Amino acid sequence: MKNKRTTLVHLIYFSRLNLAADAPTRARQLGEITRQAQKKNEFSVITSFLVVEQNFAAQVIEGERMSVNETFARISNDTRHRDVQIVEWREIVKREFVNSFATGIRSAANDALFQKANLMPMFQRGTPRAATIHALAGALQAESMSKQGIDHLFV
Ligand SMILES: Cc1cc2nc3c(=O)[nH]c(=O)nc-3n(C[C@H](O)[C@H](O)[C@H](O)COP(=O)(O)O)c2cc1C
């Protein structure tokens, strides 16, 4: 029998971003979060995907149980967002995301995927479904991979 020493889990949460309203400042703020998160996640072998729609964020965080817990503890204390709520935490068999920290921000280029997911009414009610967030993050990753010409690796 294979000796299973680590437990792989994913945590999905959503929050309200406290970012600036003007686009350049907002982009700079998101860039800063990305830089910090990438470095930390690489070190902790965390893979993740952050979905951003208006002032709502939802993130899937995958990794070893303790690493995910520690990462989420830091994230939930960050004043750059508020009302951080766990949507789902569970064991997973394998990772679904390839980058330590990737972001999908709603834009004209990916509008169809966001429209299909229709997360906004769920965010506003405070009840986004884990499966919807997960599927949208997966679709945004697939689209980005495809643009880079490496989709054949992720069938
Ligand atoms: C929306 C959002 C997503 C974040 N995602 C991560 C992440 O995936 N990993 C991480 O280490 N930090 C993430 N952070 C940053 C952490 O909240 C924190 O600032 C960072 O880990 C540095 O923590 P420290 O100042 O306690 O060292 C995120 C912050 C925000 C606002």
SSE diagram, text form:
Elements: E1 8-17, H1 23-44, E2 47-53, E3 56-64, H2 65-76, E4 81-91, E5 102-105, H3 111-117, H4 119-125, H5 130-147
Parallel strand pairs: 2-5
Antiparallel strand pairs: 1-3, 1-4, 2-3
The structure holds flavin mononucleotide.
The site of flavin mononucleotide (FMN) has 17 residues, from helix 1, strand 2, strand 3 and helix 2.
Explained architecture:
The chain has 155 residues and is an alpha+beta fold. The chain has a single domain (8-154), classed as Alpha-Beta Plaits, CATH 3.30.70.100. The protein is 43% helix and 26% strand. It is built from 5 helices and 5 strands; from the N terminus they run E-H-E-E-H-E-E-H-H-H. The protein has a 5-stranded mixed sheet, sandwiched between helices. 26% of the residues are buried. The model has no long low-confidence stretch (mean pLDDT 94). Bound molecules: flavin mononucleotide. Flavin mononucleotide (FMN) binds next to helix 1, strand 2, strand 3 and helix 2. This is BLUF domain-containing protein. InterPro entries: Acylphosphatase-like_dom_sf, BLUF_domain. Pfam families: BLUF. Residues 8-104 form the BLUF domain.
CATH topology, by name, is Alpha-Beta Plaits
Task: Count up the domains.
Answer: 1
CATH class placement: Alpha Beta
Number of helices: 5
Largest sheet geometry: 5 strands, mixed
Q: What's the average pLDDT?
A: 94
Architecture (CATH level 2) name: 2-Layer Sandwich
